[in-house]
């Protein structure tokens, strides 16, 4: 059976500083869930745990938990998670204690566009090394992987401040299939979910296929996937959902390949 996009596991609210839009609130997000037949939605505001040193940008649990208590729909269950960051010293900004408590959260290894200073100039080879090093750090973290999503694996932020809109694709191209197989193989063995968040409308056909190579390898490795709009504003939700549906078709994903962090 074809993969059913009955969830959206990475959505920001106005509590994320890069949203800050009062219309992007739990009630309006729940409405989107109900209108689209979603069973699970996770609010994942940007986050750095107050108890973990090394925060470079984000607010802690006291701030993002202002969403609680979450409204619940007739068909849609809302959950609170967070989008955990990794800093430039490869510290992951969540404590073991909170990780155990949450049902699900996403970890971003590729927010390098907000971590690099304007005056810093590194080449694509450096970013490639960083990408793999940061992924390795996540794989070695010992966090509870069955409740973690690998946020936007092919997001352009992996190219930091490099100026060309396709630099991140060049960097991904420079990673051989065999390396991706090693990393996704381990991602699958550990039980971590892989996020589908690609926006096809941002790419021409051949660039899109270069991006999708990464997910095709993940699928070959037996990885499990979830859909995520990573919406920061209400206007993101519908179009990004359409994009994810296209990608699901292009990859030919089935229900067996779905990441299921929730019991039902
Ligand atoms: Zn992100
Ligand atoms: Zn996000």
Report on the architecture of this protein.
The chain is an alpha/beta fold. The chain has a single domain, classed as Metal-dependent hydrolases (TIM Barrel). Helix content is 34%, strand content 12%. It has helices spanning 26-35, 61-64, 96-101, 124-139, 167-173, 177-190, 205-220, 234-251, and strands at residues 7-11, 40-43, 46-47, 77-80, 83-84, 105-107, 148-150, 193-196, 224-227. A six-stranded parallel sheet has the order 3-5-6-7-8-9. Strands 1-2-4 form a three-stranded parallel sheet, with helices on one face. Strand 6, helix 4 and strand 7 (148-150) form a beta-alpha-beta unit. Helix 4 crosses helix 5 and helix 6 (177-190) packs across helix 7. The radius of gyration is 17 Å and the shape is globular. The two termini are 17 Å apart. The mean pLDDT is 97. The structure holds zinc ion (2 copies). The site of one zinc ion has 4 residues, from loops.
In short:
The protein has 264 residues and is α/β, with parallel strands linked by helices.
Note the topology.
Layout: E1 7-11, H1 26-35, E2 40-43, E3 46-47, H2 61-64, E4 77-80, E5 83-84, H3 96-101, E6 105-107, H4 124-139, E7 148-150, H5 167-173, H6 177-190, E8 193-196, H7 205-220, E9 224-227, H8 234-251
Helix pairs in contact: 4-5, 4-6, 6-7
Bound molecules: zinc ion (2 copies).
Features:
single chain; 264 residues; alpha/beta; TIM Barrel; 6-stranded parallel beta sheet; 3-stranded parallel beta sheet; 8 helices; 9 strands; binds zinc ion
